[in-house]
From TrEMBL, chain A:
InterPro entries: Haem_export_protD_CcmD, Heme_exporter_D. It is a single-pass membrane protein. Required for the export of heme to the periplasm for the biogenesis of c-type cytochromes. This is Heme exporter protein D. It comes from Solemya velesiana gill symbiont. GO terms for biological process: cytochrome c biosynthetic process; cytochrome complex assembly; heme transport. The chain crosses the membrane at residues 12-34. Keywords: Cell inner membrane, Cell membrane, Cytochrome c-type biogenesis, Membrane, Transmembrane, Transmembrane helix, Transport. It comes from the Bacteria. It is found in: Cell inner membrane.
Automatic annotation (TrEMBL), chains B, C:
This is Heme exporter protein B. Keywords: Cell inner membrane, Cell membrane, Cytochrome c-type biogenesis, Membrane, Transmembrane, Transmembrane helix, Transport. Belongs to the CcmB/CycW/HelB family. One of its GO terms (biological process) is cytochrome complex assembly. It is a multi-pass membrane protein. The chain crosses the membrane at residues 21-39, 51-72, 92-116, 128-154, 161-182, 194-217. One of its GO terms (molecular function) is heme transmembrane transporter activity. It comes from Solemya velesiana gill symbiont. The lineage of its organism: Bacteria, Pseudomonadati, Pseudomonadota, Gammaproteobacteria, sulfur-oxidizing symbionts. It comes from the Bacteria.
TrEMBL record, chains D, E:
GO terms for molecular function: ATP binding; ATP hydrolysis activity; transmembrane transporter activity. The keyword Iron does not apply. InterPro entries: AAA+_ATPase, ABC_transporter-like_ATP-bd, ABC_transporter-like_CS, ABC_transptr_haem_export_CcmA, P-loop_NTPase. Residues 2-203 form the ABC transporter domain. It comes from the Bacteria. The keyword ATP-binding applies. SUPFAM superfamilies: P-loop containing nucleoside triphosphate hydrolases (SSF52540). Signal peptide: none annotated. PANTHER family: ABC TRANSPORTER I FAMILY MEMBER 1. Keywords: ATP-binding, Cytochrome c-type biogenesis, Membrane, Nucleotide-binding, Translocase, Transport. This is Heme ABC transporter ATP-binding protein CcmA. GO terms for biological process: cytochrome complex assembly.
UniProtKB/TrEMBL annotation, chain F:
The chain crosses the membrane at residues 20-46, 66-86, 98-118, 130-152, 164-183, 203-224. This is Heme exporter protein C. PANTHER family: CYTOCHROME B_B6 PROTEIN-RELATED, HEME EXPORTER PROTEIN C. Residues 26-187 form the Cytochrome c assembly protein domain. It is a multi-pass membrane protein. InterPro entries: Cyt_c_assembly (IPR002541), Cyt_c_biogenesis_CcmC (IPR003557), Cyt_c_biogenesis_CcsA/CcmC (IPR045062). Belongs to the CcmC/CycZ/HelC family.
Amino acid sequence: MSVAEFFDMGGYALYVWGSFGATALLMIAEPIILRSRRRSVLKRVARIIRMKAEDAR
Amino acid sequence: MFEVYRAILMRDLTLALRRRSDVFITLFFFVVVVSLFPLGIGPEMDTLRMIAPGVVWVAALLSSMLALERLFTVDFDDGALEQMLLAPQPMFILVLGKVTAHWLITGIPLVLMSPLMGLQYDLSGNALLVLLVSLLLGTPALSLIGAIGAALTLGLRGGGVLVSLLVLPLSIPVLIFGAGAVEASVSGLGEQGHLYMMGAILVLALLFAPLATLAALRISAE
Amino acid sequence: MFEVYRAILMRDLTLALRRRSDVFITLFFFVVVVSLFPLGIGPEMDTLRMIAPGVVWVAALLSSMLALERLFTVDFDDGALEQMLLAPQPMFILVLGKVTAHWLITGIPLVLMSPLMGLQYDLSGNALLVLLVSLLLGTPALSLIGAIGAALTLGLRGGGVLVSLLVLPLSIPVLIFGAGAVEASVSGLGEQGHLYMMGAILVLALLFAPLATLAALRISAE
Amino acid sequence: MLEVVELECMRGDRRLFTGLSFKLEPGELLHLHGRNGSGKTTLMRTVCGLIRPSAGEILWDGEGIWDQGDDFNRDLVYIGHKNGIKDDLNGIENLRICSVLDGVQINESQAWDALEKMGLRGHEDLPARVLSQGQKRRVTLARLLTHDAKLWVLDEPFTALDKAAVEFLQSVIRDHVANGGMVILTTHQEVNLTRGHPKQLQLGWKGEGDV
Amino acid sequence: MLEVVELECMRGDRRLFTGLSFKLEPGELLHLHGRNGSGKTTLMRTVCGLIRPSAGEILWDGEGIWDQGDDFNRDLVYIGHKNGIKDDLNGIENLRICSVLDGVQINESQAWDALEKMGLRGHEDLPARVLSQGQKRRVTLARLLTHDAKLWVLDEPFTALDKAAVEFLQSVIRDHVANGGMVILTTHQEVNLTRGHPKQLQLGWKGEGDV
Amino acid sequence: MSSRILNWFKFSSPATFYPLAGRIGVWSMVIAVVLIVVGLYMSFFVAPTDYKQGEGYRIIYVHVPAAWMSMFIYLVMAFWSVLGIIYNTRLSAMMTSALAPTGAMFAFLSLWTGAFWGKPMWGTWWVWDARLTSALILFFLYLGYIALQGAIDDTRRSDRAGALLVLVGVVNIPIIYFSVKWWNTLHQGATIKMSGEASMDPVMLWTMLIMTFGFWAYAIATAMSRVRSIILERERETTWVSELPEVRG
Ligand code: HEM
Ligand SMILES: Nc1ncnc2c1ncn2[C@@H]1O[C@H](COP(=O)(O)OP(=O)(O)OP(=O)(O)O)[C@@H](O)[C@H]1O
Ligand SMILES: Nc1ncnc2c1ncn2[C@@H]1O[C@H](COP(=O)(O)OP(=O)(O)OP(=O)(O)O)[C@@H](O)[C@H]1O
Ligand SMILES: [Mg+2]
Ligand SMILES: [Mg+2]
């Protein structure tokens, strides 16, 4: 089976890759979004804690 | 207890009559949706007859959803709702009273109007009857289910869409059986099965929806 | 003057964004109406293609009418409207700003969504384009015309129906030309005539509707 | 008897008060003080059971208010910032529907009486929509005259009232307390409620919202 | 200069007042008195041009207010029973949009200043929805600090304010009057506005709404 | 037995659950990646071509797992909601809202891939048939939940409102399922369902199962990661958060 044949998927390329592509896209994007969310949450929490410490002083 | 139910019912009916326009808004919407279709589609009777059950029922669902927003927000905004929550009366009854009034105001006119609408689409006498019965069973269920969504979204930003978004998936079965019953009767199949199912949904909704609504109201009034 | 227009526009857009879901109200309703019809009607592509222009346009008209209610009532209830009437700014601009914001929030998403909706009904590429253009011309006209009704309803408690009845005949031409344009394009006739008419309606509405709205607001605020 | 034990209330991420305790016996009046935003309304709504506290307990006759359902509600009247009357109903209708909900059905002539006492003669059958701000408040407060609840929770009841009405309401409150009722009240106006031996409670020591 | 000539106002089929005339010169304050429902709000809204009087005239600098369009509005601030602020916007945004409408654009730091002066420090960026009754009123009143209009029409501005805020607002009003501004004001509370040499006007001699 | 219950309550405290969630999350992600890579290899290179649908059938390896997960996640959310209402634990609401976006994503994917399957097989992207309608309704339920959560800023209210909504929705699921089926008998179905042949090729079956477990582990991993962010956001005022190494570092 050649590479071209593989990508052609017996004529169903659009459908197969459309499905797998969308799935891959979303399932890769979600962890990335989650990671950036975690970063920003951490930043915010750290800022709050710093502000508190300053207030205490 | 019945006293309180009656009082709430009468109160909401009086309020609706005072504002007059509110009584008609759902009905008006229903009539407009149903009547505009032939205008957009053209006068082919066959097409019309075919789409009639869907159109009428979709219109009923939408107009019922439309009116929902008003169900609790007015009382919420002017503080009457918190007074109800504090009243030494079973809140279940109050909710039931309000939903009943809402149905009488928005549902019944629609039910009564439906045969006329059906005529526009050239439905047979039997199909018209089935349409009327299905709406009679379906609209109270829609009101009951919708009340949950209305209560949950009380006072939230963008209440309107949220209500529709929350209520829509819950009411689709009613739509499907309602339209199904009429379609079955149009195409000569038996409509009883659908109607029984609608009865069952109505009973279920009567039992559980007020409880859920009540819980939602308590959450929202905080 | 442009400053004030911008400020009002931004204010209403911000408010809409704050409520987040409010941006979607019309869009959601539109999508639901358009998508529910096949549910009621069944999946025959031929029927669907035939009714598509009517369905999409009726849905657009209805969702636009739906959203109108909010246009002034919120400002009226919390007293912001009387402050606007007292502001040393041409009220014409304020009304125009509010209507523009309203159209950007409710009309534009609907226009952008319409090709997707058309696809559901298996419309051709050209028909989709005509659908989009007709909505682009038609929805602002609907917003402008509807604003008159919205302003009148603020004051006339009992007259809500009357106002809807008043506004509806004014919007029906838009509906007819809009659906007509798409239908003409589906059936291969020229759609230009219809689109020109819609453009003319839009220009007329732009010139006169804000004035009428303004007068109605003054009456209602008393 | 009302007992509040170690109450804590959060709004958003702000802790309004914590460890708040007090007791209110029959014949006592509690006057809440506090700056704007110090949490008076929040406290009152919590005491009524409209807001669930994030910690602490509220006991009515020794039992938690969340456990006894309607018994507590029967003994309670709450009048808040919002009037809770319907704009499209007139005074009589508003009062009568309230009384049904309160479980103390009154007939029409009693309703007329109560409204007349509240100084609404000649306006009883106007829809609340056209009433002036103070007249609306009077319709709301007329409930106090028809109700026999023991605990009154009044959130700025004097707003929008003219002097005569303030005077009258004060006497109503004094009578209620003298007859063994309980009142929790807040107001920013100077009032004269000495006959009820008012307890005072100050909220918001954190100095929020100074001017 | 504001001049009211033989004004008559009807509400429903009720004549609230008739033949009412007064003048207000720069540096003067008019304190409206009257029972609930005597027509104070109606009079103020009429003076602002929100209600058309059934007879009589209102002149601003010698010209009828209905004839001069925006000129009068530019010189006017009206603060009514309703706050007119948007629940979904925070204090800063509310104030800034008001200022654009008033035609006196302020930048963000000016808005922060005004709100801080009104005692809203720490609450500036909360949506008005979650503010307490008094805090909402403060946001509304912050407009007075950013505006340079000559005529202030204030309908019960002190409602819901705590003592410190009442004190502050009084001083703001006194300053405005001292600087040649004009104020029409009504309130049922005891206030101390002597520095402005207040004129007094009593509405509703018909004895409506007694208690 | 009782010590078990005690343990449960211990883990229902956000402070103890937070590090545990971290560990579970990492391991699930590893498992997910391994399973999905293996699953992908098998679905393209091991599984045979379908005799009826040709290569196009390979969509099944994402379509079916996504559809299954979308339904399963909703049930898990319902489970957490019940726990939250009964025991009033803070964690359960956080779990519910952590699961919802992943559930919605899978619901969307099942619709999307289904549509990409339907086009070559039935000649249309969309048909109002029982399965598809109920999947769409499920998607709406997720969206409704997420929208509701987004619209409420008071966390306690959003927790309780969300739990109520999920439960109301779950009551609806069997109704939808049966009702839609019934309705479907009335109009001609264009449905070509593969599952009619119980004798599915074992390699195909295995591939599908591996993908399903991969998706499953993925869902756990994302939910854990999301719940950790939610915990941090909600507990930011507490001392245990301020003592976390990742916060101080
Ligand atoms: C040629 C087209 C399709 C085929 C052959 C197909 C096949 C399948 C199969 C084999 C299953 C597993 C069913 C089971 O194990 O019982 C399934 C499930 C599912 N499919 Fe499809 N599908 C197709 C199109 C679609 C489309 C267009 C959609 C939606 C847009 C869709 C949505 C779903 C859903 C929601 C499920 C899970 C429901 C369940 O398992 O009961 N499918 N499909
Ligand atoms: N979501 C929220 N986020 C932050 N703060 C909030 C939130 N909701 C309420 N608050 C704050 O909680 C307080 C509520 O106070 P409350 O309404 O009980 O005040 P009050 O004592 O009755 O004041 P007033 O005298 O003005 O009526 C206000 O300071 C308000 O800003
Ligand atoms: N449509 C109507 N029919 C009859 N009376 C009306 C109508 N509209 C208003 N009124 C009366 O007009 C008066 C309006 O008074 P207004 O609101 O100006 O009072 P106010 O002096 O501001 O009182 P408050 O101190 O309570 O604010 C009220 O007595 C009200 O009952
Ligand atoms: Mg308060
Ligand atoms: Mg007044």
